[in-house]
Write a structure and sequence with these properties.
five-stranded parallel β-sheet; disordered C terminus; Sulfotransferase family protein; alpha/beta; Golvesin-related_Golgi; about 40% helix; P-loop_NTPase; about 240 residues
């Protein structure tokens, strides 16, 4: 079973489109946990309760081959219904990820369905600086990966190299060709960096040191340099 963790604003929507083409009805979406809208204690407790539930007889249905969504991977760590699990996720430069997250929330706000933190950001009219340096948004990657070593991931894609990383995912994980969908980008901007002020960027990097370290770890994983030459796959 493929356990795909969608860290916010890391091309997860584009990635799941590719997974749907591969797994079809054998794909399960898991977006109900809302980890970033809980306190630290409640977020971790909910993940552990989910892990205990899935470790029993209420695991994922046998016909499910892939789970994708916003959840903490420790939730599926003890699952008995899948004896062999592969964990995958994507990471993006944390500074740019934060800015993208901010603008996405401002652009897509729907009061009737928005979760608590999303509602506060828009209705209290947070600035980009307040968002990026807020306690609620601090070290998002680290919060999702609580209790789960990044070394357990079989694949960590880098969003900035999406097309090439999708090819690597196809070869290293699926062992099969996979079409590369378009990124779900902000339609109202070019692809220049969101944050260009060096002082502001440095402040964000310092405040999110744990996520910066995780991103650097993902960049330096040795399998990123084991890409086959471009061309048809071997049979």
């Amino acid at each position: 079973m493929l356990i795909s963790v969608h860290l916010p604003k890391t091309a997860g929507s584009s990635f799941v489109a590719a997974l749907e083409g591969c797994f079809g009805e054998h794909l399960r979406r898991d977006y109900k946990d809302l980890p970033m809208n809980r306190s630290t204690a409640m977020r971790n407790l909910a993940a552990l309760r989910g892990a205990m539930r899935l470790s029993g007889h209420d695991g994922v249905a046998e016909d499910i081959q892939c789970v994708h969504g916003h959840y903490m991977p420790i939730k599926y760590r003890l699952m008995r219904s899948a004896t062999h699990k592969q964990y995958v996720t994507w990471m993006r430069d944390p500074v740019e990820r934060l800015a993208s997250h901010y603008h996405y929330w401002r652009r897509t706000y729907e009061p009737e369905s928005a979760a608590a933190v999303h509602r506060r950001v828009v209705e209290e009219d947070w600035t980009l600086e307040r968002f990026c340096l807020s306690r609620e948004m601090r070290n998002t990657y680290s919060k999702f990966l609580w209790g789960f070593s990044p070394g357990r991931f079989d694949f960590i894609g880098i969003t900035e190299d999406f097309a090439e990383e999708m090819r690597r995912f196809s070869h290293q994980i699926l062992k099969n060709e996979l079409s590369v969908p378009s990124l779900n980008r902000n339609p109202g901007r070019d692809q220049s960096p969101y944050i260009t002020d060096p002082g502001f960027r440095q402040a964000i990097e310092q405040y999110h040191q744990r996520d910066m370290a995780l991103y650097q770890y993902a960049l330096n994983r040795p399998e990123r340099h084991q890409l086959p030459p471009v061309g048809p796959m071997d049979d």
